[in-house]
Amino acid sequence: MILLVAPPDDRHAAAVAAGLTARGERVALIDVRNLTAQIGVEAEFRPGHRPGGSLTVTRVDGAEQRIDLADISVGWWRRTWIPFLGADDPRLFGAPVDFGEAFISALEGLDISWANDPVSVDLAQRRTRLWSAARRAGLTMPHTLITRDPAAAHRFAVQNLRTGIVCRPLTKTGIEWPTQDRILGVSAVDDLVDPDGPEVVLRAFVAGADLRVWVAGDAVHAIEHGATPVDEAARLAAGDESRPGTAVDLPVEVVDAVRTLVTSLGLGHAAVDLRRTRAGEHLFLDLDPMASWLGAEQVSGLPLTAAIVDDLVQRVAARV
After folding, report:
1. What is the pTM of this model?
2. What is the pLDDT of residues 236-281, one digit of tens each?
3. Tens digit of pLDDT for each residue in 125-168?
4. Confidence of residue 38 (pLDDT cuts 50, 70, 90)
5. Residues 173 and 225: beta-carbon distance below 8 Å
6. φ, ψ of residue 109 in degrees (nearest 5)
7. Distance between CA 126 and CA 149 in Å, rounded?
8. Is the pLDDT of residue 113 over 60?
């Protein structure tokens, strides 16, 4: 059985579940939006054997979902979001620890092959860790500065006056800044950086073509979205899925580097954003282990869903 952790209205997870079912695989879906604190884990570990027992989760509506641990061989974590419950919420009654942590700990204890496990997905959101992994994999980044020092930020902006600066928060969150990913000049950077505020990421803007590279196991597919918009925020507002794109082949060394990056982060599936400069160099911009892909699949014709299904099925076969 393959365990999928995702909201039931996630059309990407639904497409994968349908593909797995069509291949004869059994699928168990845990809905993270309807979880409560009542998570029960009963597991027995015997020497030389996989753990036996069950994982029981209680939904907000009171319904219980019980999964036999012995049946699960492969898992795919599609969402990191765990619903927040206040301290006086009755759904927390009887929970000895934070229920989100308990849920993730229960999943970590499963002796299964994870395509994307919750801890690796979370760690992949840390920018500095991601950048170090990208460099070790052989990928090059645009000139980047982390600071909250106005003088250092000003010098960096002046140094990159001709191209401009792209600014992002150091910590990835679901809340976007008003200026996030817009190309800024010196005065805008001066206004943004606050010595009493959080550290910000300043990146020299490099013109070129946007590429999104999809990795699912050994499969690597790339889509070129054309020249970078003058205002990168417009790209994000429209969403990468809605942008016209065509399938392209990447140099072998770039394919190897991207695959190495994803594997080194403990991930099986991820989308990697690159920028191909006018000189033909491929620069690393970002990685998202939970990116949407159905729209990109439609515009490019690439078998992105099938690649994920294939990887999960291969993981099941390897566990037999």
Report:
1. 0.84
2. 444 445 577 899 999 999 999 999 999 999 999 999 999 999 999 9
3. 899 999 999 999 999 999 999 999 999 999 999 999 999 999 98
4. low
5. no
6. -75, -10
7. 21
8. yes
The label of the residue with tokens 């884990």 reads 41
Measure the N-to-C terminal CA separation of the chain; round to a whole number of Å.
11
Q: What percent of the chain has pLDDT over 70?
A: 74
Q: What DSSP line would sit under the chain, residue for residue? A: -EEEES-TT-HHHHHHHHHHHHTT--EEEE-GGGEEEEEEEEEE--TTS--EEEEEEEETTS-EEEEEGGG--EEEE---------TT-GGGTT-SS-HHHHHHHHHHTS-SEEEE-HHHHHHTTBHHHHHHHHHHTT-B---EEEE--HHHHHHHHHHTTTT-EEEEESB--SPPPTTTT-EE-HHHHHHH--TTS--EEEEE---EEEEEEEEETTEEEEEEEEEPPSSHHHHHHH-GGGS--EEEPPPHHHHHHHHHHHHHTT-SEEEEEEEEETTS-EEEEEEETT---HHHHHHH---HHHHHHHHHHHHHHHH-
Instruction: Round to whole Å and give the CA distance between 137 and 2.
Output: 30
